[in-house]
Design goal:
The chain has 12 helices and 12 strands. It is an alpha/beta fold.
Length: 412
Amino acid sequence: MKRPLRGLMPACLMATWLTACTSPPTTPEPGPAPVAVAPPPSPAVPPPQLRYDNAVLSAATALLKNAQLDESTTHALVIDPLIDGMTGQQSVTTRSMGERVATLVRQQYSQYAVQPFSPATIARSPLVLIGTFTGVNAQRQTSGTREAYRLCFALADLKTGKLVSKGLAFSLPEGIDATPLPSFRDAPAWTEDPATLGYIRTCQGTKAGDPINPMYLDRIVAAAQVAEAIEAYDAGKYRQALDLYSSVQRTAAGDQFRVYNGLYLANLKLGRRAEADAAFGQIVAYGLTHRRLAVKFLFRPGSTAFDSGSTLTAAYPGLLKTIASSAQGGSACLEVTGHTSPTGPEVLNQRLSLLRAEFVKSRLEASMPTLAKRVIANGVGSSQTLIGTGRDDASDALDRRVEFAVIECGKA
């Protein structure tokens, strides 16, 4: 800073940033009154964790009581089976939630008439109740060890295409049975399916008045047919399940991952090996086209060898050959990533997941040698769990998956 010219500026003004001037104070001109600034809003406090029964009752009651509907008429209501908010799977608990909500409606809410979730009912544009059940950690996030479950209910009006109510609650983990229903337990593979993703996005991160997600709305008739097929498979009616899945596949909305899984499972149960293999080829093609495919390979605990005690492992050579054959076309590379459940030290999980990925990589290359320079192996331990309970049983089999991701070779 340049020194001011002597005699042109009082010395006291040179120190106004540090001290007050010693000249007699002058009365300042009145200025505008200070504007009151409102404090920032407090962050929303999430609901407390309740016992499972109470959590279901709390979320369902909020949903049904607060619905923005004409109270002078009775509204047809269907329940699209509730699902896990991370995987889209249906479990023992999601099924029981749907049954409890239906019972509550029939007993206490006469303004709703519960009807079957079927294409015929959907054609009459009823209200549709959907819900997700999602494991969360202590910070209510879908990562790390899951210590609670978030229940999200939404009520969608097909006549207006908008949500008319929401319900939310958090459940303690006691009493939860996340064992997948047979259709999902037996499915060999998983990926994000737009139909399921649209369901989840309609329920989560929305509010009353928001539009129904178009990915869900455009496929809702097919969703009703898929629900019937899943119910038939779970009841052991494999021929009926196959007919229903085949019917869905022939529709405009039939290109769905869960449809191809269903075709594979039903054909396998009926002993139609060639048809099952063809369906698994569709599973792989769908997954790789969407650049992500997870397969549930069962390994021996702490080992890179497949579990020889499981009847499922007999199909692994054929599955790997199909994956290799599908991946060898084109010029893209394939990243094989191993995952583990959170059981045990993470440093060991990281190592084990990499070894398992390398084992699968070697099997792919043995089946299709031309892949040798286009496949890489990676292991992420338990850092990307989808279930996160660490139970190491059928309920968290997806946490021990092997993923196949299509990537640009320059990134390999």
